[in-house]
Design a protein that fits this description.
Immunoglobulin-like, 18 strands, about 25% helix
């Protein structure tokens, strides 16, 4: 109810009832730019803030303001505008408060801001001594900020030396057995801007630790390198063997006996006498083919009793001898015998001597 009454009372009197932020300024340190303002006192609370900026181009040409999305309707009373202020020109920034749909007037900077005005904070220096090697660590080094190191032998402040460094940490090799003092300073070379020097830190460089540590480090590195090389060569060899066996398999040459040195086993005379042989009868080519021979029936066997009418063919089958009768041979022999008988009868009829005829037949 109080909120409704307040909104009704302020709607007729404009936006003056919601105060705008005060004390708007930019706090820039080590090239980080933070816009700050005082909080707005409002009885209902729930105040949010929005920020906009205007560079030289927007101010003189476009006549517009750029909304910073990261800083819209925020409850904090500060905004990081480092990413938006990206060049060495003058920038204007403004902020306003808001409650629900009611907004205040914009509150601008009292003067334009240029990032060249950024302040450099005194750095924090850390010195670590390991033998003859000193490691220097300087805080707040960034892309645009470098550091300068001042060092001297203790008791000889007039001989101050300096080195520049743009990364952390920074290693320095100095003489062993001597105490050195160190100071650090930040600077921006583009703006010729320097910070105050840090408090001096004095450290003594040890004598013997350096050589021992170097020997240990070098030995460890060498052993590690040799191990890596050996393992790599072994794995490469195994891989080559697998590839060779897969793509180029070994093929052995065929075996050819050496006939010059070949020994022939001969059968001795006494072993030859112990051999058992089967008798095989070989027929001349003029005889009938054995493949046409078939076994005789019982009737044919009874009709062919004589030696001249039967042919015995010895066939060796698995070491046993079996006798087969050949009908074609019998028919051939009968024809041959009838032909001889006809010739014999012709000679007899012609008055040829029978004795002479028998001698001719015997000769045949």
């Amino acid at each position: 109810m109080f909120t409704s009454v307040f909104l009704v009372s302020t709607s007729g009197r404009g936006l003056e009832r919601l105060p705008k932020p005060n004390n708007v300024f930019v706090n820039s340190t080590n090239m980080r730019h933070i816009l700050r303002w005082s909080p707005v006192r409002f009885p209902l609370g729930g105040i949010t803030y929005s920020v906009q900026f205007q560079g030289e181009f927007e101010r003189h040409h476009k006549k517009t303001w750029v909304v910073i999305s990261e800083c819209s309707r925020i409850t904090e009373t500060w905004c990081d505008v480092t990413a938006d202020i990206s060049s060495d020109v003058d920038y204007d920034l403004k902020v306003r408060s808001q409650f629900e749909n009611i907004t205040s007037k914009w509150a601008n900077l009292s003067k334009l801001f240029n990032r060249k005005e950024s302040n450099l904070r005194t750095p924090r220096l850390t010195v670590n001594v390991r033998g003859g090697l000193l490691t220097l660590d300087v805080s707040e080094i960034s892309k645009n900020i470098n550091a300068r190191i001042y060092y001297w032998e203790k008791g000889a402040e007039q001989q101050i030396l300096n080195i520049s460094m743009d990364h952390n940490p920074f290693n320095v090799n100095l003489r062993s057995g001597i105490t050195y003092c160190f100071q650090a300073q930040l600077y921006i070379s583009e703006y010729n801007k320097f910070s105050y020097r840090s408090d001096p830190i004095c450290e003594t460089v040890n004598k013997d630790a350096t050589s021992n540590e170097i020997v240990v480090i070098v030995t460890t590195v060498l052993l590690l390198g040799v191990s890596i090389v050996v393992v790599s060569l072994f794995l490469t060899w195994k891989l080559c063997c697998r590839v060779q066996s897969a793509w180029f398999p070994k093929v052995s040459a065929p075996y050819f006996p050496n006939f010059d040195t070949l020994q022939v086993d001969t059968i001795k005379e006494e072993d030859r006498r112990k051999e058992f042989c089967d008798t095989v009868q070989v027929l001349p080519q003029s005889e009938p083919l054995l493949s046409q021979c078939q076994p005789l029936t019982g009737e044919e066997r009874s009709n062919c009793k004589t030696d001249t009418e039967s042919w015995t063919i010895n066939s060796v089958m698995s070491g046993n001898v079996s006798q087969l009768q050949c009908p074609m041979a019998i028919q051939y022999w009968k024809e041959y015998q009838s032909q001889q008988n006809s010739e014999f009868s012709k000679l007899t009829n012609n008055g040829t001597d029978t004795t002479q005829i028998f001698e001719e037949f015997n000769i045949r």
